[in-house]
Write a structure and sequence with these properties.
Largest interface: A-B, 30 and 28 residues
Structural class of chain A: mainly beta
Helix content of chain B: under 10%
Order of helices and strands of chain A: EEEEEEEEEEEE
Radius of gyration of chain B: 14 Å
Structural class of chain B: mainly beta
Oligomer: heterodimer
Number of strands of chain B: 11
Order of helices and strands of chain B: EEEEEEEEEEE
Shape of chain A: globular
Largest sheet of chain B: 6 strands, mixed
Distance between the termini of chain A: 36 Å
Shape of chain B: globular
Number of helices of chain A: 0
Helix content of chain A: under 10%
Radius of gyration of chain A: 13 Å
Chain lengths: 118, 116
């Protein structure tokens, strides 16, 4: 089974801190994603990457950046954390290649990181 | 643009009763549609997906969904609820024909409670 591992289950940070959320997948997937999950809003895509060093903005990239230096690792960075970034963050990976979702593509999600910014 | 609307943020059913979770989509082109389930303290798992093949799609754990273009719906059903079905369910849509759109648009989720 594909395993998508997020380094922290819970994080508490202070306003203005730089925050790194790490995600590692072990199935050599090309595509990796970062979503945030908020009650009443569902999941919203922050960034995705379809290759090493490639990144694309999702729906809500403001206040975030990402890094994909190695295929298996996709990091989400909050340059200066704010209270409105308190949320559940979900990483996902998929077996597709390139920026278009294929018919056989399936997203595998990590367990999530609950980030609280105080 | 694509979007999905899940009717009912909370649904309660008795054990053994029919489960019906509603999802309506909006898409200007034939969409791909998905249902994901999130159990407590876990990530999302794919239940089933529609990718323009058979309109009735069977997924894991006895769930199925039917794509109805005339109603722009993709409702999730299960004939008999089990206690282990208690979870949050997300409907999602994407447009596979749009370059650079490797992006699922998720609904706001429906929390299913199963009453013993």
């Amino acid at each position: 089974d594909v395993k998508v591992t997020q380094s922290s289950r819970y994080l508490v940070k202070r306003t203005g801190e730089k925050v790194f959320l790490e995600c590692v997948q072990d199935m050599d997937h090309e595509n990796m994603f970062w979503y945030r999950q908020d009650p009443g809003l569902g999941l919203r895509l922050i960034y995705f990457s379809y290759d090493v060093k490639m990144k694309e903005k999702g729906d809500i990239p403001e206040g975030y950046s990402v890094s994909r230096e190695k295929k298996e690792r996709f990091s989400l960075i909050l340059e200066s954390a704010s209270t409105n970034q308190t949320s559940m963050y979900l990483c996902a990976s998929s077996s597709g290649a390139g920026p278009i979702l294929s018919t056989n593509e399936k997203l595998f999600f990590g367990s999530g990181t609950q980030l609280s910014v105080l | 643009a694509q979007s999905v609307t899940q009717l009912g943020s909370h649904v309660s059913v008795s054990e053994g009763a029919l489960v019906l979770l509603r999802c309506n989509y909006s898409s200007s082109v034939p969409p791909y549609l998905f249902w994901y389930v999130q159990y407590p303290n876990q990530g999302l798992q794919l239940l089933l997906k529609y990718t323009s093949a058979a309109t009735l799609v069977k997924g894991i754990n006895g769930f199925e969904a039917e794509f109805k273009k005339s109603e722009t719906s993709f409702h999730l059903t299960k004939p008999s609820a089990h206690m282990s079905d208690a979870a949050e369910y997300f409907c999602a849509v994407t447009n596979p024909a749009v370059t650079g759109a490797n992006n699922l648009f998720f609904g706001t989720g429906t929390r299913l409670t199963v009453i013993p």
